[in-house]
């Protein structure tokens, strides 16, 4: 029996047990928080957590719950935090590394799976990333087939898995590569040999992450014949717009790292096309979409609807801003809300020319880093700036494909689901209230979020940071004047 399509979304999740892989990550934390706060009668959430040498799964759960994203929930519904139950496992291990008793527990209780866990490093070895992104997806599907009450298997992919196409629709794009054989190769071939053949094996894909996530979609498609499956493709996920708080984030990945580098003053040049629309999407919008499409899939049984549900979660057709505008706005905001540990006035040169980029990296990144590290060494401090610039370069290089190529992600299916929500569901899960905020206000809140949630800075010290910014402005002017005088002396005074 299918449930009424107007079912209240919190009622759908009420008294159900949910299993989440990747629950302690960026998307996972936000998903847990939203489920517990907006679907308060959910029965329990099982989190697959990998134990570490000095941290048990309970220690890691406790550490996760210390994150500030849970502050609102802690004040409104503190008892709901007890519904988070850690399960020992590892997505890089076969069968998710589950113990037999835990596996049976999930089989008997769980009705909704959110498979989020994946290695997202773009330079990860092929063997490891096949285990975590491919084999784990297969093993999640096998586990789901044993579950007695499964109503939705939600697989989080990425819009960029289809980056070989200028226009990406909400359909499956099959690959000729066999995912079963790929897993067997990773299990049987030596890692060093795999490294040698990686470039040939992944072909035109930008990196091993995109390659494995694309293949994982084929796994979900194959299992969708017997399971109620969803492929959900978010674009680059960034800080919250306002739910539960503005500007929350928990990592330096992707654009966050570039923004912080700009604010500190160590990032002076970027290789990108400033006219390209940036398809970054706030995480609170992503989480609402995830909960809605899982509800949409779950209100009909597999016998009533055996189709594979696919959604592109992007801001295409909703809101757009160019990369150049976003970065320039960020620099302006840093003038008013500077980072305390700033070492130079924020300013960024954007260029599409690879040659000019390399020249400017040497002049504006490498040479100053060598000079400052030399001074630090003379005063007995550890040289660090060159190492930081290496990280900045690697981050820019990893993102270069995504910020230098325009891709259009059609999101008709997702918009349709949002638009057709009942009035009651729109109160808590609509997208329009989130995107009413203007871009400058959003970037401002994001920068405050970097300071508070990533750098642990106190907004009460803002005036002190502004005074330091003024000093950096004067230092920047003095250095530029001295540089002009030096050039004048070299080219004219000696004649």
Present the secondary structure layout.
Layout: H1 9-13, E1 17-21, H2 26-38, E2 44-49, H3 57-65, H4 71-76, E3 84-88, H5 100-109, E4 110-115, H6 126-146, E5 152-156, E6 167-168, H7 179-188, H8 191-202, H9 208-223, E7 229-234, E8 236-238, H10 255-264, E9 269-271, E10 280-282, H11 283-298, E11 309-313, H12 323-336, E12 349-351, H13 354-378, H14 385-399, E13 408-409, H15 412-419, H16 423-429, H17 432-435, H18 439-454, H19 462-493
Parallel strand pairs: 1-2, 1-4, 2-3, 4-5, 5-7, 6-13, 7-11, 8-10, 9-12
Which key features would you list for this structure?
single chain; 495 residues; seven-stranded parallel beta sheet
């Amino acid at each position: 029996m299918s449930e009424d399509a107007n079912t209240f979304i919190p009622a759908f999740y009420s008294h159900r047990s949910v299993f989440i892989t990747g629950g302690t990550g960026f998307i996972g934390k936000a998903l847990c928080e939203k489920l517990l706060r907006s679907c308060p009668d959910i029965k329990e959430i099982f989190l697959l957590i990998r134990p570490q040498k000095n941290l048990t799964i309970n220690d890691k759960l406790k550490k996760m719950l210390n994150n500030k994203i849970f502050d609102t929930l802690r004040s409104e519904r503190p008892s709901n935090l007890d519904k988070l139950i850690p399960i020992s496992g590892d997505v890089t291990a076969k069968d998710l590394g589950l113990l037999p008793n835990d596996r049976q527990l999930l089989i008997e209780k769980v009705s909704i799976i959110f498979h989020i866990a994946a290695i997202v490093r773009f330079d990860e070895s092929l063997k490891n990333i096949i285990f975590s992104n491919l084999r784990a997806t297969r093993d999640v599907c096998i586990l789901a087939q044993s579950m007695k009450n499964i109503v939705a298997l939600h697989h989080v992919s990425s819009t960029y898995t289809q980056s070989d196409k200028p226009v990406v629709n909400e359909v499956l794009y099959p690959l000729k590569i066999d995912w079963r054989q790929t897993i067997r190769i990773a299990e049987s071939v030596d890692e060093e040999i795999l490294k040698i053949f990686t470039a040939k094996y992944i072909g035109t894909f930008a990196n091993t992450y995109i390659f494995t996530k694309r293949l994982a979609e084929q796994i979900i498609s194959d299992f969708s014949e017997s399971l109620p499956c969803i492929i959900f493709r978010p674009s680059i996920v960034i800080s919250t717009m306002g739910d539960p708080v503005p500007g929350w984030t928990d990592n330096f990945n992707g654009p966050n790292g570039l923004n912080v580098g700009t604010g500190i003053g160590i990032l002076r040049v970027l290789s990108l096309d400033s006219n390209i629309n940036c398809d970054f999407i706030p995480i609170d919008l992503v989480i609402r979409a995830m909960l809605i499409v899982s509800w949409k899939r779950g209100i009909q049984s597999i016998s009533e609807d055996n189709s594979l549900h696919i959604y592109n979660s992007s801001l295409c057709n909703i809101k757009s801003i160019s990369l150049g505008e976003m970065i320039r706005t960020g620099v302006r905001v840093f003038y008013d809300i500077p980072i305390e540990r700033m070492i130079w006035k924020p300013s960024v040169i954007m260029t599409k020319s690879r040659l000019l980029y390399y020249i400017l990296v040497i002049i504006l990144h490498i040479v100053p880093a060598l000079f400052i590290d030399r001074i630090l060494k003379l005063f007995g401090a550890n040289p660090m700036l060159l190492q930081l610039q290496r990280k900045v370069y690697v981050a820019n290089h990893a993102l270069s494909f995504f910020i230098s190529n325009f891709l259009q992600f059609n999101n008709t299916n997702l918009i349709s689901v949002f638009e057709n929500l009942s009035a009651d569901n729109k109160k808590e899960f609509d997208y329009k209230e989130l995107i009413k905020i203007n871009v400058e206000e959003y970037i401002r809140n994001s920068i405050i979020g970097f300071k508070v949630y990533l750098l642990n800075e106190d907004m009460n010290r803002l005036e002190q940071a502004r005074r330091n910014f003024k000093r950096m402005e004067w230092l920047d002017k003095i250095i530029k004047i001295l540089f002009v005088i030096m050039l004048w002396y070299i080219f004219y005074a000696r004649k």
